[in-house]
Design a protein that fits this description.
This is Aspartate/glutamate racemase family protein. By secondary structure, this protein is α/β, with parallel strands linked by helices. Helices cover about 50% and strands about 10% of the residues. The protein has eleven helices and eight strands.
């Protein structure tokens, strides 16, 4: 008998982004009753070492805390695990090796979505942490499909992205949205057709200020939630068909 579906969410990075991801799971799941909603267990423990500082060599690695979260989600019976934090995917391979449940990669969900659009964008702007940009997951995944990536400059990251991101983390969401909107507008002005908001604080912040750039943006965490919902619906349909 197949293992019952139970999505594990390795969250806490940050806690607001994790709550937003849970909301995205609800939005992505068509349901007529409570019982049809996607079942999940969430490890929303924010005492994880700062991912940006770790990758910049300015702080300890978060891997021990991430492995602990993976262990707890497996103990809880997770059949699949999602990580609604882009930068934490730097440790994706190590976490996958430690997990009995398969991990779903946020870049795979994003590339799949862009390829499903009526008109595939030729050039997208990528808003992400320096660690995610340096890792190159999005750039490689998109380049393989003929999509060019426009990245923020070092100055733009320092002036708008970093203070905007940390403003969200301290609860000043609108302040963060104002800064991040400036970065988004700069990428569009330089030729990006659409934007990837590849840091989970960014879409939360832009929604707080009702930024018009959202109409040209894609949220990878939302797309990951949709991928999770797809797996749940496949399981749910099969379960109700045979019971």
């Amino acid at each position: 008998m197949a293992k019952p579906f139970l999505l594990g969410v390795l969250g806490g990075m940050g806690p607001l982004a994790t709550l937003d991801f849970q909301h995205q799971l609800l939005v992505a799941t068509p349901a007529q009753s409570d019982q049809q909603q996607l079942p999940s267990v969430v490890w929303n423990v924010p005492q994880v070492a700062d991912r940006q500082k770790a990758l910049a060599g300015l702080g300890p690695s978060p891997l021990p805390q991430l492995l602990h979260g993976i262990e707890k989600l497996n103990q809880a019976g997770a059949s699949h695990i999602a990580i609604p934090c882009n930068t934490a995917h730097h440790w994706f391979e190590a976490l996958s090796r430690a997990s009995a449940a398969p991990l779903l990669h946020i870049v795979d969900a994003t590339v799949e979505h862009l390829l499903s659009l009526p008109k595939k964008p030729q050039r997208v702007g990528l808003i992400a942490t320096q660690g995610t940009l340096d890792a190159g997951w999005y750039q490689r995944g998109l380049a393989a499909q003929g999509i060019d990536v426009l990245q923020p400059s070092t100055e733009e990251l320092q002036q708008w992205f970093v203070p905007g991101c940390y403003a969200v983390k301290r609860g000043a969401v609108s302040e963060g949205g104002e800064r991040l909107a400036l970065l988004a507008e700069a990428l569009l002005a330089r030729g990006a057709e659409q934007l990837l908001l590849a840091c989970t604080e960014v879409p939360v912040a832009l929604r707080a200020v009702n930024s018009p750039v959202l109409d040209l943006s894609h949220d990878p965490a939302q797309l990951l939630a949709q991928r999770c919902a797809h797996y749940w619906l496949e399981y749910r349909d099969s379960y109700f068909t045979h019971t």
